[in-house]
Structures are given as C-alpha cells and as structure tokens.
Amino acid sequence: MLLAALAMITFAETDAAPKPVQYRSHEVSVGLKAGCKVQQVHTPAGKIGNHPAILRCPAPVEGLASKTAGR
User: Fold this and answer.
1) How many secondary structure helices (H) and strands (E) does the chain include?
2) Tell me, what's the pLDDT at 70?
3) Which residues pair with 37 in a beta bridge?
4) 4, 36, 46, 62: which could join 55 in a potential S-S bond, CB 3.0 to 4.6 Å?
5) Is the pLDDT assigned to residue 14 strictly greater than 60?
6) What are 22-66's pLDDT values in tens digits?
C-alpha cells in the first residue's frame, strides 16, 4: 500500500512539469527575450540561403506561435 502511494506521488510530479515547445524561426530576439534556448542550423558550404534557427522554449511564446502557425 505504501509503495503504491509513493509511486502515485512520483508519477504525479513528473506529469506536472511543463513540456518544452520547439519552433523554427528567424525571430531569435523574440525567443531570447522569452527565455528560449537557441540552436543555429548549419548551412553546408556552397548552399545558398540560411535556415531558420531552432528555438526551444519552456512554454509557448505568442510572437513565435503566430509566425510559424501557417508553415
């Protein structure tokens, strides 16, 4: 009985943690202001253009969600 109670408490705490949100956007400054981590995407030599950065945020960000929703 005690083990079942401890297991339920452990699982309840892990579900309460917010899931990180990931965006691909050129709006790096908006992500940094919201507390996101930024990962630049490598463009191979000889390729034209640049790829949007990967932003990993602890919670959804309003400015980024509206720009990437249509893609």
Assistant:
1) 3, 3
2) 44
3) 56
4) 36
5) no
6) 888 888 888 888 899 998 888 888 888 888 889 999 888 887 765
What 3-state DSSP class applies to 57? strand
User: What does the angle CA 41 – CA 58 – CA 16 come to, to the nearest 5 degrees?
Assistant: 140
Q: Tell me the C-alpha distance between 38 and 31, whole Å.
A: 8
Q: Quick one: pLDDT at residue 56?
A: 92
HSE toward the beta carbon, residue 54, CA cutoff 13 A: 8
SS3 category, 61: coil
CA 48 to chain centre: 27
Question: Which tokens sit at 10?
Answer: 């452990």
Quick check: pTM over 0.70?
Answer: no
Neighbours of 21 (CB within 10 A): 15
